[in-house]
Amino acid sequence: MQTYRIHIEGIVQGVGFRPFVKRLAERFEISGTVQNGLDGVRIIFNAKDPDHAQIFLDTCVSEAPKQSRIDHYSMELVDSERFDQFELCLSAGQGVLNAPITPDQGLCKQCSEELLDPANIRYGYPFISCTDCGPRYSILNGMPFDRETTTMDLFPMCSNCEKEYNNVDNRRFYSQINSCPECGIQLSLWTASGELEMTAQEKVDEVIKALRSGFIVAVKGIGGFLLLCDASNTKSIQLLRERKVRPDKPFAVLCPSLESIQSNFIPSTAEQKALQSAAAPIVILKPRKGNLLDLKFVSPGLDSVGTMLPYAPLLKVIANQFMEPLVATSANKSGQPLIYKYAEELLDLADIVLDHNREVTFPQDDSVVRFTPFTDHQIVMRRSRGLAPSYMAKSNELDGLLAVGAEMKGTFAVGHCDQVYISQYLGQLGSFDNQENYKYVLNKLTSMIGCNPEVVLHDLHEQYFTTELASEYTLEQISVQHHEAHMMAVLYEHSQLESNEPVLGVVWDGTGAGTDGAVWGSEYMVYDDGHIDRLAHWDYFPVIAGDKMSKEPRLSALAILGENSGLEKKFTNQEWSYYSKLRKQESLQTSSMGRIFDAVASVLGLIDVSSYEGQAAMLLEQLALKFYIENGPNSPGSYDIPLDSLNTYELLDMILDDVCQEIEPNKIAAKFHETLVSSISHMIHIGQFQKVAFSGGVFQNGLLVDLIQFRMEDHVQTYFHQQLSPNDENISLGQMVHYRYIQSKEPLKTFKQQEQCV
Predict the structure, then answer these.
(1) What is the mean pLDDT of residues 615-621?
(2) CA 703, CA 299: separation in Å to the nearest integer?
(3) Phi and psi torsions of 159, nearest 5°
(4) Above 80 in pLDDT, residue 387?
(5) What Rg do the C-alpha atoms of the chain give, in angstroms?
(6) Out of 13, 26, 304, 400, which could bridge 748 as a Cys pair, Cβ 3.0 to 4.6 Å?
(7) Which residues pair with 196 in a beta bridge?
(8) CA–CA separation, 478 vs 401, rounded Å?
(9) Among 507, 484, 488, 508, which Cα is nearest to 496's?
(10) 3-state secondary structure of 589
(11) Has residue 599 got a pLDDT over 70?
(12) What beta strand segments (E) does 393-502 contain?
């Protein structure tokens, strides 16, 4: 009998991996131990021969729990040790963390069934969980993932839960967050008059009564509070918009079941799969005719709605009792961080608050994904609950780096031993409260994983909060150009940084400080052998009124088309005079593709003043999509501008001419999209590129992504973001990769050099 040691790395904690190994060992009649550590799971066992050991290892990998993710595994023969049985050992907490952090897991099918089964002891218990589902990252205080390293440590298990926990045949065997009504988390219900003393079921009943009466309810989910109201009640939705100061930005909708979603929306197979995944994100869907929503107020001006299933059992209980779709949006005022602890300010937003006493340590908004209209290509719009913070990269090359990201879509990234941790979306960092929340999450996560960065990386923009924050570190501080960071992030996702041929990068977004003092945003770059060169960009045009230009598409139209364009009607006489003078005086120039989209949207009469970021681009994409839905996927043609010069002014002049000739607006919008795709094809042709990578917020446009894939020649390989959003959330990772592959060329320190990394 020989003794072997297996080491399995990846997301293998908080997913039922040790219970799985224990059951598997009994099946194989193997004796030994399994233990969580700071570097994954370790199994030591006796096997009668090498073949028996190998089959056991292969089965560990092939039949691993569905929520696990194995990044690496190994097996070695060790000194002989005799075991009489197979045991689960207490976690080893010594050493330095070198394992990914498991994200929160949405309510699983079995727990959902038990929750609704009157014969089950957890019937109606709004915190039911098992090894396959429940909060993970959001309640974490330390690693390895054990009850005592989470906020569940305050809830000792009752005798029945203990029996389940110790029973190898029970699906809650070694479930670290196991609880029941007898020993578990308690609800509390609050109004402006104070806390209401009721039973748990009475509190839920009161919430349902409030929702049916048109009131707004705040409910504590997994990552923080949500605001709920009846999605068919116009007055409730209008009141919610007033309280959140959110006039037009679409709300998400919570449906009680997949059947409810199917009766109100038209989900594709891919969209249904995403809705039912462990991440349980919001998925943007097309509504059916005759749906039960007040679409005019849920999603003003748009023909799509963010939709989700109940990912937390408390939300499932409420949604099931209410039975109809609910508006579900983050509990905060527009531009402020998510509220995740009970505070009186909740009662400024909601009429009644349903809280509970399990603490949230890492607040997170809901993740959001969409799928492109023709090919069902997934685009991550917001990476947060269920997806953050671990990133699927197993390499020590980014060890010792801290990247603080950009401003508009705040994230940070940490390289530690073999791991890369990328924070959840942390909001727009122009507000003080968001900055404080960013610092809280940064300090808590870096402290928990025990990292000691040696270099801090930041954006080139000197006035960003993150740049100022980086300056507070007594470390080497390195700036990284915004669009180069974008490109490096997508190349890293696709392992193209050591490509043996040049890669064309198309990086389009709203803003980013350029090395020439201009604001970049429509970049064609080339990555080749550790170097990035700026190949081309659309023509510069003036920035009018600073940041105000990003909020008023009419200013972008004026900046490009000038005073003799017939745009006067979009302004008062005083505004027209003022902004026209500014245009002539302004020295700051931009090539922003985001502002070009804004200008086209304004010229087409879609919008002149936006109330939220990306509104104009969304309306323009929607208009163009209508053309293809009505006419098929063939191109309506593009604007005949010289693509060697990428003349922004000429493009907008042609669009304005089409408007004056009363060409159908949806055709104009489609031709604009086709012109952008043609410009990419032109760059591919002149550079003879075989590979093209895309990044930047503009590539949240699903129609544009589909058109690129339709129009590219077969020999061209396209790369879009997979795990990360194309928007500025990926900047933090890109900054680290830029430093490693372009600025330093060598890892800061290698894993082998770090003996403390176990």
Answers:
(1) 98
(2) 19
(3) -65, -35
(4) yes
(5) 27
(6) 400
(7) 189
(8) 11
(9) 488
(10) strand
(11) yes
(12) 401-403, 413-416, 419-422, 455-459, 476-480
Contact 171, 122 (CB under 8 A): no
Measured distance CA(431)–CA(438) in Å, rounded: 11
Give the bridge partners for 130, in sequence order: 133
pLDDT digits (tens, 9 = 90+) for 249-260: 999 999 999 999
Nearest CA to 416 out of 743, 751, 732, 723 is that of: 751
Which amino acid is it at 436? E
Cα–Cα distance for residue pair 420/404, rounded to 1 Å: 13
According to the model, what pLDDT value does residue 756 have? 38
Domains and CATH numbers, the chain: 2-88 (3.30.70.100), 187-379 (3.90.870.10), 536-670 (1.10.357.160)
CA angle 348, 354, 360 (to 5 degrees): 95
Paired tokens of 308:
């989700």
- Region 219-233: mean pLDDT is 97
Quick one: which of 9, 14, 133, 723 has its CA closest to 411? 723
Q: How far apart are CA 448 and CA 438, in angstroms?
A: 15
pLDDT confidence bin for 746, thresholds 50/70/90: low
Q: Which two tokens stand for residue 581?
A: 């003078």
List, in sequence order, the alpha helices (H) in 588-725. Answer: 593-603, 615-631, 648-660, 665-687, 702-711
pLDDT at 125 over 90: yes
Contact at 8 Å (CB) between 176 and 129? no
For the cut 80, the answer to whether the pLDDT of residue 100 exceeds it is yes
What is the C-alpha separation between 559 and 28, in angstroms, rounded? 72
Percent of the chain predicted with pLDDT > 70: 98
